[in-house]
Design a protein that fits this description.
Distance between the termini: 37 Å
Structural class: alpha/beta
Largest sheet: 11 strands, mixed
Low-confidence stretches: none
Order of helices and strands: EHEHEEEEHEHEHEEEH
Number of strands: 11
Mean pLDDT: 92
Number of helices: 6
Length: 205
């Protein structure tokens, strides 16, 4: 008779990607075969809602300016990248000042219910001076940018996962300083299983 499974539910902001999460899960289930790890891809605000409603044990999210009543552990800091049309800047250029992009459209990768939260990140926190237009997916934004319509923004971890044949990713600077995104694990109670998983995830990042 099979032993009863224990669940570990992890809600994660889907724009962060899941490469590191998948690798951590692989290592975790080898040590804990009777733990069923469930990954829930969701919006930034949705990940916190799942945690708040006890529908997730851990939320993996980027840190903004929320006043949260959760415990947190930093997983990594990732550079923020502008994804531009290929050839717009000479090969070898790796960074660009955000103000150089003010005359270009910035596509916000967000579903309608996520637009306010993502606009706040780009406009208020990153202080991007571009005009903003929403795009439903990274794939849609990539097609628009490849056609020369503007640019979009991703963390370096996620940017590594997209096909850049027609795109040029450049690190985004604010007066010479790299704009960084803090990726965190949030939780209400740090159980032994949650703590172990977070440590594995730190190693993957």
């Amino acid at each position: 008779m099979k032993n009863k499974m224990t669940e570990l539910k992890i809600a994660y902001f889907d724009q962060l990607g899941r490469k590191e999460l998948d690798q951590a899960v692989q290592h975790f289930v080898l040590k804990h075969p009777n733990v069923d790890v469930k990954l829930l891809a969701i919006s930034h605000d949705g990940a916190f809602a799942k945690l708040n409603e006890d529908e997730a044990d851990i939320a993996i999210n980027d840190l903004r300016d929320e006043n949260l009543n959760f415990d947190e552990t930093e997983l990594t800091q990732a550079g923020v990248m502008a994804i531009l049309p290929k050839g717009m800047y000479p090969n070898g250029i790796q960074m660009i000042e955000k103000d150089e992009l003010n005359d270009m459209t910035c596509f916000i990768v967000a579903k309608p219910e996520e637009e306010v939260s993502e606009l706040h990140l780009f406009k208020d926190l990153y202080q991007i001076g571009s005009q903003f237009i929403a795009s439903n997916s990274v794939e849609e934004a990539a097609l628009l940018v490849a056609s020369g319509s503007g640019y979009f923004i991703l963390s370096e971890n996620t940017a590594r996962l997209i096909n850049t044949a027609d795109l040029q990713p450049l690190f985004l600077l604010d007066h010479g300083q790299l704009i960084k995104q803090k990726i965190m694990a949030f939780y209400k109670s740090n159980s032994a299983l949650s703590s172990e998983f977070i440590k594995l995830l730190q190693q993957e990042y």
